Amino acid sequence: MLEFLAAEGGISLLDVNPGLAIWTTVTFLLVLFILQKFAWKKITGALDERSNKIHEDLDRAERVRKDAEAKLEDYMEKLNGLKEEGQEIIAEARKDAEGLRNEILETARKEAEQIRERSRKEIDLAMDAALDQLHKDVTGLSVQIASQILGKTLSEKDHKDLIEQSIKSVRSLQN
Question: For residue range 64-81, what is the model confidence (pLDDT) as tens digits?
Fold first, then answer.
């Protein structure tokens, strides 16, 4: 299209038109003056305000980031402390469980020993009772046999003395 205009009327883009240049300059200066007088302060104020807000937001973001890092570090320290405390609690629980186990085993061993000792005493008492009964029976039979052989009956005192002597002799044989 420019070639068309250049061919018909002789307008070229490289041609300088002094009137057009002056009016363009005057219009530019007039717009610049109006902008400076009425809008420039508002525009620069808004830009400064926006710049300050951006700087404040960046500062606040930096403070929040540092605060978050500090809290993260605190939480990590607390977590490590809790882990150590948990390990200590587990170790103490194991120690307590081991002590309780040993205590239970010791109690069971003592009870078993007491039962064994009681059983031995009961067995000894039963054995003594059985031996006493046996001695009485043997003595009674011996007295009957002896009285039949001798043809006489022993007195009760003789009978007691004979039983005591028999028991003493049997006990001395036991030991």
Answer: 999 999 999 999 999 998
Residue 135 burial class via C-beta count within 10 angstroms: exposed 0-12, middle 13-18, buried 19 and up: buried
Which residues, 6 or more positions from 166, have their beta carbon under 8 angstroms from its beta carbon? 135, 138, 139, 142
* pTM exceeds cut of 0.85: no
CA dihedral angle for residue 140, residue 141, residue 145, residue 146, rounded to 10 degrees = -40
CA distance readout (Å), 129 to 91, 123, 125: 56, 10, 6
Ordered by start, the domain boundaries in the chain are 18-44+56-174
If you ran DSSP here, which 8-state letter would residue 14 be given? T
Tens-digit pLDDT profile for residues 7-37: 455 567 778 888 888 999 999 999 989 988 8
Q: Which amino acid is at 80?
A: N
Q: 156-174 and 40-150 helices cross at what angle (nearest 10)? A: 130
Question: Measured between alpha carbons, how far is 34 from 54 in angstroms, rounded to an integer?
Answer: 29
